[in-house]
Amino acid sequence: MKIYMSGKLVDEKDAKVSVFDHGLLYGDGVFEGIRTYNGKVFMLEAHIDRLFRSAKAIDLKIPMSRKEICKAVVETCKANRTYNGYVRLVVTRGVGTLGLNPYNCKKPQVIIIAASIQLYPEKLYKEGMAIITVGTVRNHTEAINPGIKSLNYLNNILAKIEAINGGVMEAIMLNTHGYVCEATGDNIFAVRGNMLMTPPSSAGILEGITRNIVMELASKNGMQVVETNMSRYDLYTADEVFLTGTAAEIVPVVEIDKRTIGKGKPGPVTLRLSEDFHVFARSNGTNIF
Ligand code: PMP
Asked: Residue 15: phi, psi to the nearest 5?
């Protein structure tokens, strides 16, 4: 595998990061996870825009232009023949001293890995997933805003540990007000009748690119799409619940906190949106080849 690093493609065995990189020492950096479908990079510009917003929010100057990064992503995919795959784009603060001061790090490091990902077993997409709400509260928006896709994922990892130790694969995190926020790496939706509900950005979520597409597709299908604060009540009483994310795509949820959601199997709205999403994803994107 060829990895993009320090401005060029290098062999995987040579793709090494310094122990003094603040990305490693402090989780100081930002990243994106991007999919390729059918030989095209899906929603590349939206991901690059979010990367630059995340970087701006932590006062990290990415040493490349948007255009240069797009080109580097495409080149890395081409070199690895990433026809249907997953790209991890990482910008670390770079090498610094053993102290927090980020301004001692003079050269942020841009890394691109073009590979593949399978977050959950295929079976869960057909039968639906059981999840739980956990005690780990999502980061407060004025502490580490969840809108920043930073390399510091400990908040999410702590919730993931609770989920796995609780016997399920995914967790729902609530915010400091007790409202539903998001899963550890996915956004959450609930269906009630013709209404599709999802927490607003102000609830302290990462505004998912998959989320935004699903909202558009649902509107096109004549659904009423509402961004609203949701409590666990709204999940427990929903007809359907599903998760969305670049890596996860669309995952039906059929059980929350041991309660059956809807009919206990993937519902018609989830299945239709998943189908529409894949049709859209296969036909849109930036050509690699
Ligand atoms: N929330 C969190 C915390 C995430 O890490 C992600 C991305 N994995 C998402 C939501 C979904 O965002 P996207 O659809 O842009 O991948």
From this structure: -85, 85
Q: Which atom of ligand 1 is nearest to the CA of 156?
A: 3
Supply the pLDDT for residue 128: 98
Per-residue model confidence as pLDDT tens digits over 91-114: 999 999 999 999 999 999 999 999
Q: Whose CA is nearest to atom 6 of ligand 1?
A: 185
**Which of 36, 160, 187, 249 gets mutated to test ligand 1 (max ligand atoms within 8 A of its CB)?**
187
CA of 247 to the centre of ligand 1 (A): 8
Contact 288, 38 (CB under 8 A): no
Pairing of strands 240-245, 8-11: unpaired
Q: Kindly give the distance from the C-alpha atom of residue 289 to the centroid of ligand 1, in angstroms, as a whole number.
A: 27
**pLDDT at res. 126:** 96
Residue 212 CA: nearest ligand 1 atom is 14
Residue 48 pLDDT: 98
Residue finishing a domain among 74, 90, 115 = 115
pTM to 2 decimals?
0.98
Segments in the chain below pLDDT 50: none
179 and 277 assigned to the same domain: yes
**Which residue shows structure tokens 């990902």?**
117
Total of domains in the chain: 2
pLDDT at 9: 98
* 167 and 237 housed in the same domain: yes
